[in-house]
Amino acid sequence: MIREFGFGEFLFLLEGARWTVLLSLLAVTFGGALGLAVALGRTSNWAWMRGLMATYIQIFQGTPLLVQLFIVYFGLPLLGLKVDIWMALTVGLSLHTSAFLGEIWRGSIQAVPPGQSEAARALGIGYVHRMIDVVLPQAFRIALPATIGFLVNLIKGTALAALLGLTELTRSGQLMANITFQPLQAYGAVGLVYFFICLPLTTFSARIERRLNAAR
């Protein structure tokens, strides 16, 4: 007997959505920290550091995310490093995230008027405090729309985790489509859940952006 797509099947999708959200949070946390380091390296006074970070960004922006995930998942065991699916996905998505956020934040840091940094240097403020207190707060305002836009794409990009065997939102929808033989209802529900996951993020971004512009 063929099952109908109903409330129980929708709850199964929500169960998968939990892992989608968790995977996105892990990628943003670790990828964001690494991305800040990449951005600072790209704006460094050391030419070798700028070149190294530029190469890093080109590698991860110039190759498909799915290929990066496969390399981490299947490549690390060849080096003697045993990784489970969660570790592989977290590492792969974090590296991908760091490259894109690093480049977004690099442009935002360089968009801050040079006079701001020069004035802070003239007052004897060191590099660390100059970045934390003067440059990065202004760069954050500039980078906010692009950062949120990337994070929304990252949430949708976690759908590739299904190809490695993780039963996240997209994989849950695929299973329900196969069980119920109602792919339109199943994938339509998947799209609806993705929409409501991303909607608070974009709404929050617009609100913060208006508040920052008002304060300015």
From TrEMBL:
The keyword Glycoprotein does not apply. This is ABC transporter permease subunit. Pfam families: BPD_transp_1. It comes from Rhizobium meliloti (Ensifer meliloti). GO terms for cellular component: ATP-binding cassette (ABC) transporter complex. One of its GO terms (biological process) is amino acid transport. Keywords: Cell membrane, Membrane, Transmembrane, Transmembrane helix, Transport. PROSITE patterns: ABC_TM1. Belongs to the binding-protein-dependent transport system permease family. HisMQ subfamily. Its main location: membrane. InterPro entries: AA_ABC_transptr_permease_3TM, ArtM/GltK/GlnP/TcyL/YhdX-like, MetI-like, MetI-like_sf. It is found in: Cell inner membrane; Cell membrane. GO terms for molecular function: transmembrane transporter activity. The keyword Hydrolase does not apply. Gene3D superfamilies: MetI-like. Residues 17-205 form the ABC transmembrane type-1 domain. The chain crosses the membrane at residues 20-40, 52-73, 139-166, 186-206. It is a multi-pass membrane protein.
